[in-house]
């Protein structure tokens, strides 16, 4: 049985590390060392949603989870929608708390998209969300990787002009409000971040 130590890892790295390890050796038992709290809960939920069995043992520092069984498709919702999945990102940060935390959450959210089995078909950036697609953003390379995987990435032209960033666009392409509205109205599902 392989053991991986995910203690002291920032979110979402414990789940991402477990996901990769399970994919490398499907059906083999995996022991994961984790901090208590959110890391333990997130990894347990991830495994359970895939039909895996999780056995927990308390440690002096943290917890050891042993994950066994054959993974199935995620039970987190995987329903099939008619039409594309469109993601609308309307800010360069996530949530209403402190700005620094909001920016960190948004960065981690976008990075985590690369680890998902199902990607959105199109990601639309509006308002200050366009700052994520331009020079100086921490997620430009991630967005370029998404584009290379077939995800359409578009930034609102009016928004780029407002922030004087049109000539600094590095990921995806410029679009207009007609395309944004049409994309949202014809989508099978819309995810607003």
UniProtKB/TrEMBL annotation:
<dbReference type="Pfam" id="PF01206">
    <property type="entry name" value="TusA"/>
</dbReference>
<dbReference type="InterPro" id="IPR019870">
    <property type="entry name" value="Se_metab_YedF"/>
</dbReference>
<dbReference type="InterPro" id="IPR001455">
    <property type="entry name" value="TusA-like"/>
</dbReference>
<comment type="similarity">
    <text>Belongs to the sulfur carrier protein TusA family.</text>
</comment>
<feature type="domain" description="UPF0033">
    <location>
        <begin position="2"/>
        <end position="63"/>
    </location>
</feature>
<dbReference type="InterPro" id="IPR027396">
    <property type="entry name" value="DsrEFH-like"/>
</dbReference>
<protein>
    <submittedName>
        <fullName>Sulfurtransferase-like selenium metabolism protein YedF</fullName>
    </submittedName>
</protein>
<dbReference type="InterPro" id="IPR036868">
    <property type="entry name" value="TusA-like_sf"/>
</dbReference>
């Amino acid at each position: 049985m392989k053991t991986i130590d995910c203690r002291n890892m920032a979110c979402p790295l414990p789940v991402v590390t477990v996901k990769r390890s399970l994919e490398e050796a499907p059906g083999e038992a995996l022991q994961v060392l984790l901090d208590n709290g959110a890391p333990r809960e997130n990894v347990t939920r991830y495994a359970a949603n895939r039909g895996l069995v999780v056995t927990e043992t308390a440690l002096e520092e943290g917890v050891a989870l042993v994950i066994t069984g054959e993974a199935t498709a995620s039970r987190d919702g995987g329903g099939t929608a008619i039409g594309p999945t469109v993601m609308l990102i309307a800010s360069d940060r996530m949530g209403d708390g402190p700005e620094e935390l909001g920016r960190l959450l948004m960065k981690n959210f976008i990075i985590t998209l690369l680890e998902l089995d199902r990607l959105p078909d199109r990601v639309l950036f509006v308002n200050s969300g366009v700052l994520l697609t331009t020079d100086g953003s921490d997620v430009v390379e991630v967005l370029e990787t998404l584009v290379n995987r077939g995800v359409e990435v578009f930034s609102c032209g009016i928004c780029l002009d407002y922030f004087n960033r049109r000539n600094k666009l590095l990921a995806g392409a410029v679009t207009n409000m007609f395309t944004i509205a049409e994309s949202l109205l014809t989508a099978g599902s819309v995810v607003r971040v």
